[in-house]
Amino acid sequence: MNIKEWIKTLTFYEILLGMKATMSHLLHYKPITLQYPHEKRSLPSNYRGMLALLRYDDGTEKCVGCDLCEAACPSRVIRVVSAEVPGEPTKRYSKEYDMDMTRCLFCGLCVQACPVDALGMTQEYEWAVYDAIE
Ligand code: SF4
Ligand code: SF4
């Protein structure tokens, strides 16, 4: 053992080195905990949150009731009942559109399958409610 190693042993060099890292962390401490719900995390643009059925700017629903989202969903979340638009036999719409979001994997396959971009994944992640709907 040479003199340098002896000095390191006598001065507990490794412990001092560790304490230096600890002290540096303490002195430059920045809290990373967010005070939710008063502070909210900024999400990445491709975050997959709550699914939404979209509308055109004039308020009409984009969905044409084609069932492709239902067929694409691996978890059987979506149920679509389509019908003809009254007076326009060539047009269809979703008369009933149900989602059981308790089964959703947030895989986005339904969004990809939709031919008219009627489905979108929002950035909404606050699902808790005060009163549940039966
Ligand atoms: S995100 Fe995936 S699991 Fe959820 S409804 Fe769409 S296809 Fe089904
Ligand atoms: S795939 Fe799109 S247009 Fe077809 S039923 Fe689903 S949401 Fe509607």
Describe this protein with a few key phrases.
134 residues; alpha+beta; Alpha-Beta Plaits; two-stranded antiparallel ribbon; two-stranded antiparallel sheet; binds iron/sulfur cluster
Structure description:
The chain is α+β, with helices and mostly antiparallel strands and 134 residues long. It has a domain at 51-121: 2-Layer Sandwich (Alpha-Beta Plaits). Helix content is 25%, strand content 19%. It is built from four helices and four strands, in the order ααβαββαβ. It has a two-stranded antiparallel ribbon. A two-stranded antiparallel ribbon has the order 2-3. A hairpin with a 2-residue loop joins strand 2 and strand 3 (88-99). The longest helix is centred in the N-terminal third of the chain and has 15 residues, at 13-27. It is elongated. The protein starts with a helix and ends in a 13-residue tail after the last strand. The mean pLDDT is 92. Residues 51, 72-75, 77-78, 104-110 line the site of one iron/sulfur cluster (SF4).
